[in-house]
């Protein structure tokens, strides 16, 4: 990873990670989230790093921040919390970095950030919070953006492409709703024949990917959510990342999009183990 990323340590204006209160960080970031809206438009002139599910792996978060070169844009694809031992610290770290560099750090909504819209298990992070903390934090995280768009034709989100006419329609997606469920809970499979798999999660196959990607103008989808999904699907236009040792059992990977690079398939992004 060192050949692509170099040291970048986010400044923490609010003190150390231990002393910084998660709830205060969330309250401070809320206004930024409201201003950003549901679709982030990424800078085409900056190197972009996409980070998969972290699930409480603070070491993964620290590794990304420590090794990122100045000017790098970092997009966390959701599911920062639950399953791992350091969910609170990982989320706080990302929110502090967001406050420090609001145009360089983005956290998208995964299903595990959306406790305020639908309950799920496991939810060890949410269940560790007091009722007051849940009431304060859950509505703020429901304001997270759904997706991040790069003009090279790359879209980052947590799960599956929503069935919408254009990317601009993301601004109209309600939480919860079927398009929201696709974005945060949706799976992809190269053998899917039904919109629901045995887990009840929406699952889509090749034809639906091609149709939705065409409508939305997406060349390559970068997403996370499924730790055991193939890294590349649908003629290498769908890239699945996982960036946690706390869950999934596979390697921790990020994807790097260099500025000015033409993108035809997901292989035009550098997939790096951390």
CATH architecture of the domain at 22-158 and 220-273: 4-Layer Sandwich
What's the helix-strand series? HEEHEHEHHEEHEEHEEEEE
In the predicted model, the low-confidence regions spanning at least 5 consecutive residues are: 1-19
Taking the alpha carbons of the first and last residues, their distance comes to 6 Å
Largest sheet: 6 strands, mixed
Q: Would you identify the CATH H-level superfamily of the domain at 22-158 and 220-273?
A: Metallo-dependent phosphatases
- Over all CA atoms, what is the radius of gyration? 17 Å
Query: In the CATH scheme, what's the topology name of the domain at 22-158 and 220-273?
Result: Purple Acid Phosphatase, chain A, domain 2
Globally, the shape reads: globular
Strand-pairing-aware structural class: alpha/beta
- For the biggest β-sheet, the strand order reads 1-5-6-9-11-10
Proportion of beta-strand residues: 15-25%
CATH top level label of the domain at 22-158 and 220-273: Alpha Beta
Helix content: 25-40%
**Continuous helix count:** 7
How many DSSP E strands?
13
Overall pLDDT: 92
Describe the structure.
The chain is an alpha/beta fold and 274 residues long. The protein has a domain at 22-158 and 220-273: 4-Layer Sandwich (Purple Acid Phosphatase, chain A, domain 2). The protein contains 7 helices and 13 strands. A hairpin with a 3-residue loop joins strand 5 (147-150) and strand 6.
């Amino acid at each position: 990873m060192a050949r692509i990323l170099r040291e970048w340590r986010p400044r923490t204006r609010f003190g150390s990670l231990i002393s910084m209160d998660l709830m205060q960080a969330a309250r401070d970031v809320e206004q930024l989230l409201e201003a950003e809206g549901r679709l982030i438009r990424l800078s085409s002139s900056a190197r972009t790093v996409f980070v998969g599910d972290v699930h409480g792996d603070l070491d993964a978060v620290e590794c990304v921040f420590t090794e990122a070169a100045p000017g790098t844009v970092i997009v966390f694809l959701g599911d920062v919390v639950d399953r791992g031992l350091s969910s609170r610290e990982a989320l706080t770290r990302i929110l502090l970095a967001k406050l420090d560099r609001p145009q360089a750090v983005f956290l998208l909504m995964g299903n595990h950030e959306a406790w305020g819209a639908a309950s799920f298990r496991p939810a060890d992070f949410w269940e560790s919070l007091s009722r007051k903390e849940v009431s304060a934090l859950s509505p703020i995280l429901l304001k997270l953006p759904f997706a991040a768009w790069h003009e090279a034709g790359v879209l980052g989100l947590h799960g599956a492409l929503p069935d919408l006419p254009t990317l601009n329609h993301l601004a109209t997606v309600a939480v919860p709703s079927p398009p929201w469920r696709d974005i945060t809970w949706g799976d992809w499979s190269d053998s899917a024949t039904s919109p629901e798999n045995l887990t009840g999660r929406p699952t889509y196959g090749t034809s639906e990917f091609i149709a939705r990607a065409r409508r939305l103008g997406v060349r390559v989808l970068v997403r996370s959510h499924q730790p055991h999904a193939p890294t590349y699907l649908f003629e290498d236009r769908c890239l699945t990342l996982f960036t946690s040792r706390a869950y999934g059992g596979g390697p921790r990977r990020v994807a790097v999009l260099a500025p000015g690079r033409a993108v035809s398939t997901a292989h035009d992004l550098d997939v790096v183990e951390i």
